[in-house]
Structures
1.
Amino acid sequence: MSDQHEEAQFCRTAGDKIMFSDAIVQAIKKVQQRYPDQQGAVLPALHIIQKEYGHLTYEAMRFVSQQLRVPESDVFGTATFYSLYRWKNPGRHQIQICHNLSCSLLGAETMIAHLEKKLGVREGQVTKDGRFSFIRMECIGRCDGAPAMLVDDDYHGDLTPAKIDDILAKYE
Amino acid sequence: MEKMLLKRVDIPNAADIDVALKHGAYSTLKTAFDMRPVDLVNEVKRANLRGRGGAGFPTGLKWELCSRVPGALKYLLCNADEGEPGTFKDRFILLHDPHLLIEGMVISGFAIGAERGYIYLRYEYPTALGVLEKAIEQAYAKGYLGKNILGKGVNFDLSVHRGAGAYICGEETALIESLEGKRGQPRIRPPFPASQGAWRKPTVINNVETLSNIPYLISMGADVYAKIGEETSPGPKLYGVSGMVNKPGVYELPMGTTLREIIYTHCGGVRGGKKLKAVIPGGASTPMLTENHLDVKMDFNSLVSAGSMLGSGAVMVMDETVNMVQATYTLVRFFAHESCGKCTPCREGTSWLYQVYKRLMRGEGKPEDIDLLLYICETVKGKCFCPLGEGAIQPVLSSIKHFRGDYEEWIKNKTVAHA
């Protein structure tokens, strides 16, 4: 969580109270039933908001705190601990490319250099047309297809620069 | 050996319950429910099943400790965090045979007296999330989950809890913290999870592969099961092989198959006919071995004797072209990124190791840096809160031990990489 956090675009505030859509409120209520206490639902509640809006914000964390009656500090601590909660929107398609050992041995750095050149962005930045962004990952459990990446939820392995070009052409 | 754990993995659409049922899924439930829970625990103890997540703790003992704690509310957690670099074995079961895991969890829950289970799934397996949720829904619909399963009065509820990107959550007490909605930092032990785990209730945490062994172990009986593979830690083992081999993949073999057989018979040897230089036998945190160790049996005890560990059985193969300084840098960067920050030796130790390796990568290394690395490892060794720090120094210590020449040459030539 950076201190220059973006203002939330996707919620309303009334005094101290943060309001998200009914669908979000219902989804959180539903997932709460899986846990014996309110705090158990913190991770899934953050996932629900991130999935809907692409990233988390200060207001999103306060909202989860209010919904689950968990102290703000605890929700902030949890949300900022994990590396895959995001604080700004990725591109329309997010590339997660592995650079751990098995992928490195078989050319991950070459693939990453190719991505940087092809997309004209560095890790974490979004292309001008908003289509792609990429991040480096520490082992995505696809070592048998190294070098490997995820585009959104789809897995692609045995990458070569040419194969990356073909794959990316399929994402609008 | 006939495949067990991967038996249904190659059958198209075996994640669908109707297909899985045609091929024997849930067929051990009746046998298990006709036994007393204490007999199930004893059967697993007699079979000498050891946990497949990394530590190799005897599963039956873990179950016994939990089952003896009085109280009606207990939890069974499946560790599907599979974050150890090089490890991908559980993915095959999660994606292609989720009903094997669910069946294993229902039986295990009955044995320890837990009626509530969670599968802690790493965030990086988005496809597995959908597969598991659908499989659980189908199992509920067919009455293999929920209330009064098979009309035998057994109850078991199950859901998936998705992680959010943190290697440390594979450590069982950190996993519990994360399940409870907190930062994934390990807890002090004792109390052990078996007496006070999730929400302070008695809890058993088992790996995906461990739980998937249960239906087969119970259906064939401990005596037959214990005859598979190595005597001291029997059973089938999933070895996930990656790196510079001709046929990377997951191989189900008897526990104790030699490293040589795995690499040269099953994986078709080293790519391009090159010479093997180093092998990591059990994931990033296990010490590297060399070609001199190829005849080691891949089981818990034999690998300890050889100076390494079985870990998750994730074999990473490096050929003669690999520079070990650079390979180790990749692993050190990983551990520095994943240290949870709770204890000083690990938080500071991993980050200082990373600083020195970055200097080496920039071509600014000094001859005394090798001893400096060893000194930093010494400040970490045996002083950490959990096994992460201990694991983090293993690639450093073992690469310097076996490949000190690579370091000396790298520093002398002022080699630059990842600049």
Note: Residues 1-8 of chain A have pLDDT under 50 and may be disordered.
2.
Amino acid sequence: MKFIKREGENFVLHIGKRKRPLLFEVLKLYPLVPAAHHRVSQTAKQMDEHQTLLEEALAERRQENKRQLVAMLHEEQRFKETDTGYRLTLSAPQMEWLLQVLNDIRVGSWLILGEPDEKKGKPVALTSENARHYAAMEFCGLFQMTLLDAVEHRR
Amino acid sequence: MAQTVEPLVVPDIGKEEKSDPKGDLAPGFLVICWDDPVNLMDYVTHVFQVVFRWPRQKAEFHMLQVHRQGKSVLARESPERAEHYVHQLQSYSLHATMERDA
């Protein structure tokens, strides 16, 4: 995927023919991060009410994201075919939304992989079961960098 | 935090009343972002810019603080505002919490 240009308030991106099905497969994994993964506080003990509110808010947001995602994947005009692939047009709020979705899949994949951390000498332990999550984590990172480059180009 | 690029210039960060953890505000909660090895540095910078409406240099400063020191205090706010920011940061899947200011 690469950023092509701005068209008014929209971002125009190119995605190759072989990359589009890959993007779709990765997006189908959403959501991956469990709501209870996020803690509202690391130290405070009397935060039950805040924690419940946080989990409810995140669950609601994910439900809405999933609804938008399904709609986008079934929207034929969203990806316009070209000679070399597809042209994807997204508004600024849609870019922001897609960044959140991709990062949920990236972080969720990382959790499934056992939270590898090369800096701490904890490499990825690949198995036939988790290999697709390693691929998803890496692809999400690449797609995110393209979107971030496009957003930065606007600023 | 997963590495992407590091800026060459460390910015001179100005004081902002609403987000200065040492500011002269009513006692409240600190909004803290913690380091993790998965979120991309550019992504974290972007999220700080969006959530706090910070300029890129200030967002990069806090991102690098997270990366190098393991955490960064992003704001000192009332419980409601702190909760709002934590919700925003976590909706981007950042590792953020609110802690009572001692």
Note: Strands of chain A lie at 2-7, 10-16, 79-81, 85-91.
